[in-house]
Amino acid sequence: MPGLSGRMSTVVKSKISKLLDRAEDPSETLEYSYQKQMELLQNVKKGIADVVTSKKRLQLQEQKLQQQVVKLDTQARQALAAGNEDLARTALERKNVAQTELQSLDQQVTELENQQEQLTASEQKLRAKIEQFRSKKEVIKAQYSAAEAQVKIGEAATGVGEEMADVGLAMQRALDKTEDMRSRASAMQELEAAGTFDDLTQLTPGEDDIDRQLRELSSGSEVDDELSKMKAELGMGSSTQGALGAGSGSESGTPSGEQSSDATDSGSDSDSGTGDTSAQNAPMPDLEPPAPGAGQGAA
Fold first, then answer.
1. Are 88 and 79 in contact (CB under 8 A)?
2. SS3 for 88?
3. Is the pLDDT of residue 248 over 60?
4. Fewer CB within 10 A of the terminal residue: the chain, N end or C end?
5. What residues does each domain of the chain span?
6. pTM of the entire structure?
7. φ and ψ at 38, to 5 degrees?
8. Are 262 and 254 in contact (CB under 8 A)?
């Protein structure tokens, strides 16, 4: 299916192009282009050197041929002067061949000189372009670096960069955990104040909130009962002391002088007797607190 294969090829190429665009660094690309242009300039220089070398070689051959032509011309003249016309003819024929080769070498040298001039001009133009590219390359790299730094600063200031986004997410997670821990601590304090949790450090049987309230209520009732009993006992002792004081006053029927003396004597006697009677009749309050198990056993 050519349509399916074409779509697959297009998708693969687009994916590869996207990956290459993401991995491509403009600074590195410009440096690579500059290096390739410098390599091209070096090749041009090498070509010029090769042309010049070939021209020099042809020029050396041309010099040899010129010397050979002069030599053959001299030999032909000598042979003709000696009367050897055939030898002079042979020398002239070789002279003509040498002159033909010399003309060909002249044409080749001229062509090489033209190539040398063209390559030299091309090398100068290429050098100028490379210098312009180098200057422009540095400007583009500086602009790209400045733009990249500006983008990073903007991302850091606005918090839209990847690193700042990670930092923001980490801070948000820390705040969320802090709020959770504060809520948990508040809930623990509230439950502990309500008595939901038992104190595991006490060696007592486990009890729930209702058992604890009932125990506090029973202990409070026992304390109230014991307090009422103590008040009743203290009230009976006071009434006994008042009745004894009234009886001692009614028994005095003597005259005033005798009454005063008798009252004095009876007062002293009544004080001592009353004190003894009240001390004997009034029960002493128990000042020591009851034992923890006494109230529960009485109940």
1. yes
2. helix
3. no
4. N
5. 17-168
6. 0.45
7. -65, -40
8. yes
